[in-house]
Structure formats: C-alpha cells, structure tokens
TrEMBL record:
It comes from the Bacteria. GO terms for molecular function: protein N-terminal-serine acetyltransferase activity; protein-N-terminal-alanine acetyltransferase activity. Gene3D superfamilies: 3.40.630.30. PANTHER family: FAMILY ACETYLTRANSFERASE, PUTATIVE (AFU_ORTHOLOGUE AFUA_7G00850)-RELATED, RIBOSOMAL-PROTEIN-SERINE ACETYLTRANSFERASE. This is N-acetyltransferase.
Length: 232
C-alpha cells in the first residue's frame, strides 16, 4: 500500500490514465449467435419477446410490463434505437437470423471507464442456453478489449434469484446489497451489486473459451462440464 507525504494510505497510482469510449457495435460474431446494435429492422421481430405472448413471470423484476399494443411497443423500441445510454443490443441466432432477445450496456462512465450490463430480456428459446452464455461472453470481450473498461457491473433485485445466479456463474463477484435502493412498480427494491475487473478478465476469457468449445458439448447440444467447474 502506498503512503503519501502525510503518512496516509492511498490507492495505487495509475499511469497514462485515459477516458473511456462509448460503444459503437456493428457485429460481435460468435459460433452460435451474433450481437448487433438494436436497429429499426429488428423491432417487428422482437415483438414476440416484448409483446403479449411473453410470459408474465419474465417481467416481475423489470420496471415495465409486456406490451399489449404494438404501436406503444414500436414507440418504446424506436426510442431505444436512438438511445446511447442505455445502448441496446440484439442477440441473433446464427442459424436462423431470428432475434432472440436484447440487453444493453448502460450507466456508461467514461471518466472512470465503467459500464453495466442491464435490461436483459430473453425469449424462452434463449434462456439457459449456450447461445445466451456466448452472447454475454461476446459483450464482455467488447467491454474489456474494445472499450477498455476497468470495471464491468451487474446489478439486480436482491430477490431475483435467477439474475443473482447468472451473475455468479458468468464470473461476476458479489460486492454487497444497497438497501432500499429503488422503488419500482410500487415496490421496494434492495439492489445486489456484482462486478468483474479488467485484471480478472483474462482468466474469465480462458474459462469461457474452454466452455464454449465444441468439445464441451454433445451432439444434442448438452454441456459436458458446467461453466463454473471449468478449470484454467
């Protein structure tokens, strides 16, 4: 630990500090999926994910409900197309080109080079699949290697167990709970914070790469070794 001239402990000195950059995604190509910026052309195809056929339980921990009116949905998505923060991304199936869900990079802090993964909305076909994990991996890779973020965050309602489990499985580390952090849908929200740091990314990247290898999947697409059990 460094000590200043007053005998006080201070943080590590950083050299050549530069501001971060805003995301400018064209296409992040994976084996099973492609992640692209949300554009007008994706809106109609995503209505199955955001519209009345979406299971209601998918929206418990989100601040909105599924849309029952296409015009209102279209306006919402057109606003998201223009948004720079959150910066909305679409997950496309490589085989069919179908839009399977969306997520976003948000709370982008250029001064401190921090970004957050949020607004995760998956179709039933995407949930708990190799495609979903690869999509998250592709964005992590972009965040650390193209945006040069020092810190990548994941936050969720303390009661949202699937999101908590996903964060830990993906390699984020739990940092604590912000009590009474927000009100949404007239309810209290205690928010759990998770993060991954730039120095943790190389080992996590090796873990993802090993897990995503075709050798780790059966002919029917079942994983042989779980992501959390991969050793690097």
């Amino acid at each position: 630990m460094a000590i200043n001239e007053f005998g006080q402990e201070i943080g590590e000195q950083l050299n050549n500090v530069q501001k971060g950059i805003l995301p400018q995604v064209t296409a992040l190509e994976g084996q099973t999926v492609k992640v692209v910026k949300l554009e007008q052309e994706h809106i109609e195809g995503l209505y199955d994910v955001y519209g009345p056929s979406s299971p209601l339980e998918n929206w418990t921990y989100l601040p909105i409900e599924p849309f029952t009116d296409f015009t209102a949905y279209q306006q919402f998505m057109e606003d998201n197309v223009k948004s720079q923060d959150p910066y909305y991304l679409v997950i496309l199936d490589n085989k069919t080109g179908e839009a399977l869900g969306t997520f976003s990079l948000m709370r982008i802090d250029l001064q401190n080079r921090v970004a957050e993964m949020g607004w995760v909305v998956y179709s039933e076909r995407l949930k708990r699949t190799r495609m979903a994990t690869e999509a998250q991996f592709l964005v992590m890779e972009y965040v650390f290697e193209d945006m040069h973020c020092r810190r990548y965050e994941w936050k969720c309602d303390h009661l949202n167990q699937p999101s908590r489990q996903a964060a830990l499985r993906l390699g984020f580390k739990y940092e604590g709970t912000f009590r009474q952090a927000a009100i949404y849908k007239g309810r209290n929200r205690d928010t759990d914070w998770f993060s991954m740091l730039d120095q943790e990314w190389p080992e996590n990247k090796k873990r993802f790469t090993k897990w995503l290898s075709d050798d780790n999947f059966t002919a029917s697409g079942e994983q042989k070794v779980a992501l959390q059990k991969i050793n690097v």
